[in-house]
Amino acid sequence: MTRTSAPGVRVKDLTVVYKTPAGELPALGGVSLSLAPGTITGIVGESGSGKSTLALSLLNAVQPPGRIKEGSVEIDGLGNVVELTGEELRRARGRQVGYVFQAAQNSLNPLKTVGKQLLDLGRSHDFDDLPALLKDARALLGRMGLDGGRVLDSYQHELSGGMRQRVGIMFALVLNAHLVVLDEPTTALDMITQAAILKIVRDVHHERGLTTLIITHDMGVAAEVTDSLAVMYGGRVVEHGPTTEVLGSPRHPYTKGLIRAIPRLSGDIDEARALPGRPPTLGTIPKQGCVFRERCPMRIAVCDTVDPEPVTRDARTVACHAVGRPATPIVPKEYV
């Protein structure tokens, strides 16, 4: 389907499980999240929180032993991606949903030049005008400050990490996808290259009229480029809202802990305080109650038995029993 405007995305009650010797364990537990058309949404959280699993679900690309057990991913112009199969799903990937993988070098074939891989991509999506595809790729790479001709003639080992990351962005955009997912786009890059990549993301997003999702563990990256921010923990979205509000006045205790742990360049360095404990793994996510309760300074009795429902007020969504209600917290010993 041809689309000329940025799509909206609506994830509803999405559950993704992985088969293990202990049975099927949830990596995502009933996640609901909306991406407004034309916006940049960030997802932050510690490693293992479910960020990349959620991103892969937008392409229905969760690989065995994982599977999407329940829920839907509605994308304007595509419908429910969870229901797409075979050729219809293959065509949607790349052509309508672009994906920039976390390790850019792992998404490139070391035995083929970038240009040959681009031609393979064009043929797989039945592009009739392959010279025009190459021309567009050279122009995109030029916009990113690279010599497009040289890059297309290069193998992956001839490119730096920052160059490979830009090639990944080019592959995600060259087929004119209007929904683009970037998984940790600045990981392992130096600060100058990070700044350049983020500027490219912002510029291309606005110039091409995209809906963009950025997965990151870096609050600075989220603050720099996103319009809205979702915070994930234990396979749940625990807070979501406008980025400036989430970072400026966080409501969920996990969001507060993440922000408090950020090192400062000035002032008292002791103000930065790491979150106590460790995030849960697939095998330790509790089957009932709040997934964050073991590390939470606002824990109350109901947290042990009831999973908090997300509540939306003033464009802010928070899933926490203790937010907005007076109660005597059960303070974990790490906070005493």
UniProtKB/TrEMBL annotation:
SUPFAM superfamilies: P-loop containing nucleoside triphosphate hydrolases (SSF52540). InterPro entries: AAA+_ATPase (IPR003593), ABC_transporter-like_ATP-bd (IPR003439), Oligopep_ABC_C (IPR013563), P-loop_NTPase (IPR027417). Keywords: ATP-binding, Nucleotide-binding, Transport. It comes from the Bacteria. GO terms for biological process: peptide transport. The keyword Transport applies. SMART domains: AAA (SM00382). Transmembrane segments: none annotated. Residues 9-259 form the ABC transporter domain. GO terms for molecular function: ATP binding; ATP hydrolysis activity. The keyword Ligase does not apply. This is ABC transporter ATP-binding protein. It comes from Herbidospora galbida.
